[in-house]
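Sample A.
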Amino acid sequence: MLKVLEVTLPLFGLVFCGFFGQRLRLLPDGGVDALNRFVFYFALPAMLFRAIAFQPLSAYKQVSFFAAWMLSSLICYALAYAYAHHRLRKGPMAGTIMAMNVTHPNVGYMGLPLALELGKDYVPFMVMAVMSDLFVVVVMSIVLLEIRARRADASILHEAQRHGMYQSTPAIQGITLTVLQGLAKSPLVLSALAGLLWSVMALPIPPLLDHFSRLLGAAAAPAALFAIGASIGRTPLHLNAFSATMIGWKLMLHPIIAALALLCMPGIDDKAMAIGVLAAALPSASNTFIIGNRYGVHTSAVAQSIVAGSMLAVISVSFAVWITGLR
């Protein structure tokens, strides 16, 4: 267990440095937002580009892992949505946000640094988890929220059309455009596609690009983990039954569902199995809060679950590393 903590505690130590830095008011006003922007728009894309571009295409040959991870995400998503709707009596949009929150782990800010710490052989699997989450979980959530939002506004739009004030476009076309615009503006998507292009074409990395991306990417792990802690530190913690349910679902049920899906899928080796369970044991990503706010969904419980889940993840992640034999 000591070897496990030697891997996980330094990472979560950076999280708690950010937490106490914010609580002790050592960071200036707006400092956390600026740090998050640096990570999201600069450092993390550089790290993701290098993680993909420097791997041969054969490193991603385990399509079975991608399929199993995607299957586990869809199962967890559907079960969480059904639970929110039938058990918690939540509406469709709140149910969608809960399903996304308990299915979308922080594989970017926390998963990639952890995979790099464990060894380069684990990075391709974590990259596949990042891609699956971006293009399946996030996209599916936006589509579902868009459909519900458009249905809610249907009567208003219909009235506007009657008076010639609004020219309609096909709903599917409008939703597709919204999703594509969101993906096109994401620096993570763009850097991942650039890295994949480099890997597929086996292009040489110019020394200038190599040194620049290495310096910038090296800042991603400490800055991202510190930013997580600082974001936690500025959010008061007031848990309720709903947020506690999401924490338990994310840190316990999601890893179990992922483990079962990976076990049932043929062609999964021990490394893929271990990193899949570890990725599922990570706390929820903040994307859920951001997207929920955009669509006007009440997200205070989501914010609380992300805060508390990120603090408790030192236990779930350490346990996942230990039980899978990663250390």
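Sample B, a different protein:
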Amino acid sequence: MNQIGIIMGSDSDYRVMEEALKVLRQFEISFEVIISSAQRTLARTINWVKDFETQGGKLIIAVAGLAAHLPGIVAGATFLPVIGVPMNSGALEGIDALYSIVQMPPGIPVATVGIGAARNAALLAVQILTIHDRDLSIKVKGYRAQMLRDIEAKDEALQKQLSEVC
């Protein structure tokens, strides 16, 4: 059983979403990735969502650019949490996708991350899964602690460099 499903509207989204896959692998979260369109393959999209839900999937990340209907269609077809990732594409460079995903009608929410923010989408998904997984929660706390150590080491190196210049 895959815990997280990632559905992309286009194969061109994959190069950005690879960052999300790295995060999910790092936290040892099972996932599946498909390409399906809200407009061009609507029945296929809804069937995949229903199958994923029936198989015990826990959360879906839906990725789309331009008018970005995919996250909303997915959210309307399931009770699972949906995280939308707007992609930088078209004349408006992702602003249209961002607005389309974040402005869902009342009753059908889609959590939305920044334009192209695949890494944050995966991290949010992992954090949601920690609600019922203590071991995963410990891994996330360790990840955060490592970020702190990395930033402190970078600051220490900067301070040393600045003191040598002065």
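Observation for Sample B: Residues 60 and 78 are 9 Å apart (CA to CA).
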